[in-house]
Amino acid sequence: MSALTKVPVHIITGFLGSGKTTLIHSLIEQKPVDEKWAILVNEFGQIGIDQAMFDARDDVVVKGLPGGCLCCQLAFVLQAALVNLLARSKPDRVIIEPSGLGHPAGLLDLLRGEAFNDVVDVRDIIATLDPRRLDDARARQHDTFLDQLDMADAVALTMLDQSTSGQLAAAHAFVAERWPPRKWVQETLQGELSLTLLTQSSSAAVRGQEMPGSHQQLAAMPSLAGSFFDFPPPPGKPQRETGTSLGYTSTGLRWHPSERFDLDSLAAHLGELPREARIKGVFHTDNGWKRLNRADGTLSIESSAWRQDSRLEMILPDTLPTPSLDLEPHLCALPVS
Asked: Where is each CobW/HypB/UreG nucleotide-binding domain found (predicted)?
């Protein structure tokens, strides 16, 4: 296969809640009508929330890889999924969204390895950065947070409507201090990024960072993929999955699709959870199917197409106690009429 036929692969990395999925939605809306895209989404939790955040369409294939870190634990799963996507879907472009806790080093090693050397063309790595994150000293000292930015070729500043001018200026200054300089730093209002910034990029440069010790330890562990089955749990008995690694704990819940939730009660309950809780969910509510997204204490609600079932994922740093996610007493599941 010649270099001209290689499939462009774009990696959109960034820490938890930094707007990766929103940015990818913006890119999909700009997709040329004659192109077919494949989106590979990895998430720290095990119930596959992020895949459900994309509406189904014929020209965009979305594959979720839940249950671990794509960059270390799920390398074999990624290789199998990508080979399958390339063979079956024959996409013109692939976008990979690693977990917000994922380190890019292992992912790049795989994509630039022998298995894909003549098949894919790895383009510039784009990191999303929420300027508000820099107010937290723990984030500025977090190895994965820093390495995601250091290995990126370009940076998209997100959450502009929720950031102050001072936070935005500090983010520009923080990125400007990284070496080597980024190719570009773009402010993205509502996650809108011009597709030309991706399509005009050349192959990403190898920056030489090694995977930190915490990820190397995970790489030696058995893969967690596939531990959460596709069939729904029985009505009235939500299924729960938990996982802990890299200093964070994920809690996932899934309900039978026939169960509906009172949207106002649901939003109020999630609003009572700790501000540090990163929450994503899709719910069958009394007001139709809804996508819920909460980062840094701000909850957004959007309409969604039909989903296989209702599901929720919460990620918290291990420094905080995990609150109860027994939602039934609070949300009053409604019978289907």
From this structure: 8-170
Q: Which two tokens stand for residue 326?
A: 């027994």
Q: At what angle do helices 104-111 and 75-88 cross, to 10 degrees?
A: 50
CATH code of the domain made up of 3-219: 3.40.50.300
Q: Taking Cα atoms as reference points, which of 111, 97, 33 lies closest to residue 63?
A: 97
Domains 3-219 and 239-331 share a fold: no
Report pLDDT digits (tens) over 211-229: 455 445 444 444 444 433 3
Dig out the tokens for 87 from the structure. Answer: 């063979």
Burial class (CB in 10 A: 0-12, 13-18, 19+), 19: buried
The pTM (predicted TM-score) of the whole model is 0.66
Q: Among candidates 154, 249, 136, 247, which has minimal Cα distance to 198?
A: 154
Rounded CA-CA distance 87/82 in Å is: 8
Q: Work out the end-to-end distance of the chain between its first and last CA atoms, rounded to an integer number of angstroms.
A: 56
In a 10 Å sphere around its CB, with 0-12 CB exposed, 13-18 middle and 19+ buried, how is residue 128 labelled?
Answer: buried
Structure tokens at 176: 């400007």
* Structure tokens given for 298: 């701000």
Domain residue extents for the chain: 3-219, 239-331
Which residues, in sequence order, are bridge partners of residue 41?
64, 97
Rounded CA-CA distance 139/133 in Å is 7
Q: What are the E-state strand segments in the chain?
A: 7-14, 37-43, 60-66, 93-97, 120-122, 126-129, 154-157, 184-187, 239-245, 248-255, 278-285, 288-295, 298-303, 310-317
pLDDT beyond 90 at 10: yes
The CATH code of the domain at 239-331 is 3.30.1220
Q: What is the mean pLDDT of residues 59-71?
A: 72
Residue with tokens 């300027």: 131
Greater pLDDT, 330 or 324: 324
Confidence band for 287, pLDDT divided at 50, 70 and 90: confident
